[in-house]
Amino acid sequence: MKICPVCDQEFPDQQSSCPQHEVELTVVAGDPLLGSIIQDKYKINGFIGRGSMGAVYKAVEQSGGRQVA
After folding, report:
1. Rounded Cα–Cα distance for residues 69 and 46 (Å)
2. Which residues of 2-20 are buried (b: 16+ CB within 10 A; e: fewer)?
3. Which tens digit of pLDDT belongs to each residue from 37-50?
4. Across-strand partners of 11?
5. Which of 15, 18, 28 is nearest to 57 (CA)?
6. What's the CA gap between 22 and 34, in Å, rounded?
7. Phi, psi of 58 (to 5 degrees)
């Protein structure tokens, strides 16, 4: 899966650019962080979005089940 960094719309892997914004799509599927555990505390469950300073992921706190980003 790929997403547009401008509108966050999802596209199939075969597509290379967003037809609306004419920007290169960001690959999300196969992200090495998905499913990993950070600091023995947070399990990364999904990708939320990408900005100029980095990426944001959704995760769950292992001890209490609280959803975090």
Report:
1. 9
2. bbbbeeeeebeeeeeebee
3. 899 999 888 888 87
4. 2
5. 28
6. 27
7. -95, 140
Strand 10-11 to strand 26-27: parallel, antiparallel, or no bridges (unpaired)? Answer: unpaired
Residue 29 pLDDT level (bands cut at 50, 70, 90): low
11 band by pLDDT with thresholds 50, 70 and 90 = confident
Q: Which amino acid is at 3?
A: I
Place of tokens 């995760």: 59
Q: Structure pTM? A: 0.56
Rama region for 21: left / alpha / beta (φ>0; ψ in -120 to 50; rest): alpha
| Inter-residue contact 61 to 68 (CB < 8 Å) | yes
